[in-house]
Amino acid sequence: MPPPSSSQRRWEIDFVRGLMLGLMTVTHLPTRVSIPLGQPFGFVSAAEGFVLLSAYMAGLVYGRVAFRKGIAPMRQAFWRRALTIYGCQAATLLFLFTVITTVGLYVDQPAVKGLLNFYFAQPVDALVGGLLLVYEPPLLDILPLYVLFMLISPWVLAFALQRSWLPVMAVSVLLWVLSQFGFAEWAWSQFSRILPVSVPFSETGSFVMGAWQFLWIMGLWMGASRNDPAAAPFEFPRWTLWLAGAIALVGLVWRHAVGQVPFPHAPWANVLQDKWLLAPLRLIDLFALVVLAIRFGPPLLARLPRMRWLETLGSASLAVFCAHLVVVLLVLTLFGANYERPWPLDIALLAACFGSLYAAAKVTLWFDRQPAEDDAPAPPPVVYAEKPTPLTEDTDLLPHQPDTVVAPAIRPL
Q1: Does a structural domain hold residue 383?
Q2: Largest Cα–Cα distance of the chain, in whole Å?
Q3: How many CB atoms lie within 10 A of CB 304?
Q4: 17, 54, 161, 202: least CB-packed within 10 angstroms?
């Protein structure tokens, strides 16, 4: 049995994506609720959930394209989406370098100067490096990661679908392990010797790509596996649920008992929970939450009232994510990184921010619903009374045949 149609949206997935976007917005927007609501479920941030869910959707949607149409259409679909995301990143980067920089310098805002130290020192190199996804200022380092993952995903997915996921996951795990021991910085130094670049490693973004690719590959595998018609239904053994519950509970209590820093009295141990390296303890906490969400999330959501505004945010996630960056940058420019403003002002900022995100989502969805020129109904064919010309061997005169469906051999891990 083939997978369901791509036109069928899962409101639960839109809800979770909307929730992740909401948490990221609250974390990035400097208000009194930023610190209490940062990493609310344990030592796991919304970024991990957003990347994993994005990879899952990519594997599900583009894996379905490969299943129904073949590898080449799947690859083209990935590239079109990567180009769209790159356009959003370039637009946001130019907004930062023009509007935010001008206003920030005019009001002498330290928060903006801190974001753009390298740009102020080397503006041309920063602009070129930013457009090449090499220079990644703070807050603008998630979309470049997304673009690069989308570019490598067609080859990863094609290899895994036609052969096996096992070597793909083995290489991914190896890269994650190497990244825990400084492989990224070493690789950057070697690359800089071959091709001289002026962008230092510290300005290439906070997220270590070699570590975070593991989360992307994991999500890609989870999503693509849903398209396997021969896959048997999977249920977590009871002991894994108990173990995941215990780990999640410890992480939740630990996070809210000690704060955002897991080892305040042993700084050397914080590397085990490092977000940018996707460190081991963080991964364990994340996997525990994923197991619980997969097992108990759907029945729980079915019993709760639907939050359609979050679903709306999730269904236009790329536009909402870019809008949240614009709003956060404007707030940092006009109000600074102040976490002790009066409550009425913080509430007004949060209301204006989420109102803007909701408006961006609604406008995006409205445009998505507008029919394109290519979708306009074709005029009815003209019927002639005279006898039609007989078909010849010319291929242009042959009747149209439906596209051949190419179903790649999808193998489990």
Answers
A1: no
A2: 92
A3: 8
A4: 202
CA dihedral 113, 264, 290, 47 (to 10 degrees): 0
The set of residues, in sequence order, having a beta carbon less than 8 Å from that of 161 and lying 6+ positions away, is 63, 66, 71, 224, 408, 409, 410, 411
Owning domain of residue 128 = 20-231+305-369
CB 212 within 8 A of CB 145: yes
pLDDT digits (tens, 9 = 90+) for 242-254: 999 999 999 999 9
pTM comes to 0.85
Confidence of residue 396 (pLDDT cuts 50, 70, 90): very low
- Per the structure, the count of domains in the chain is 2
Regarding whether 271 and 139 lie in a shared domain, the answer is no
The average pLDDT across 309-326 equals: 95
> Are 195 and 291 in the same domain?
no
Residue 258 lies in a domain: yes
Asked if residue 167 belongs to a domain, the reply is: yes
Q: ∠ CA(404), CA(405), CA(411), 5° rounding?
A: 145
In whole angstroms, give the CA distance from residue 45 to residue 252. 12
Does some domain include residue 387? no
